[in-house]
Design brief:
Strand order of the largest sheet: 1-2
Largest sheet: 2 strands, antiparallel
Distance between the termini: 49 Å
Structural class: mainly alpha
Order of helices and strands: HHEEH
Helix content: over 70%
Radius of gyration: 15 Å
Oligomer: single chain
Mean pLDDT: 92
Number of strands: 2
Strand content: 5-15%
Low-confidence stretches: none
Amino acid sequence: MLTVELAVILLNAVLLLLAYFWWYPRVAGADLRKVAVFDTLITLLALLIVGSRFWGTEQAFELFGFHTNWFWFTLVTYLILEMPLAIWYFRRYGPPR
């Protein structure tokens, strides 16, 4: 059985993999502004999905030894998972010259 933390991390991972390997290359390419806009939307989608499940609950999430709520856990884990993908993406698709 999945823990709530693992479920949120898996959701974030799936959204990020779809975004960076399927959506961004097709729609944004090397346009940094488009990537930023779409990334904001994907981040909001992750928060909306997790929030629809945990909004108003007292569910605690364990994050680096601290208890936090669903919002901060989702946002921080999303950003941690996104960093290596973003670095790879911008090295591969770099800004237009």
